[in-house]
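pasting for the record
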Amino acid sequence: MTGQKIHEAIALAVDDVNGMLPDAERLTFGPCLVLYGEGGGLDSLGLVNFIVSLEERINEKFGVALALADGDTMSSEKSPFINVNRLSAHLEKVLKSKGIN
């Protein structure tokens, strides 16, 4: 159930960001969608908007406030924002550490 709600939150955040992008730059949601980095659909400002939206969506779905942008998550090698699968796994781990299964 948690995994499904995480995917829903990410999909809603992608929709939110798509509302700010020109039609030609809109993202197509899927598990392998590259969000940021090489081949990613978001520039740095787009990523910030996505993170803010995702934090809000996670709060709505799970009732927990998360700060998703920090030094570890933003490093290019470890970033969970590379693609949707990686981000989902990261969010599951973070939520589990907060006692949400």
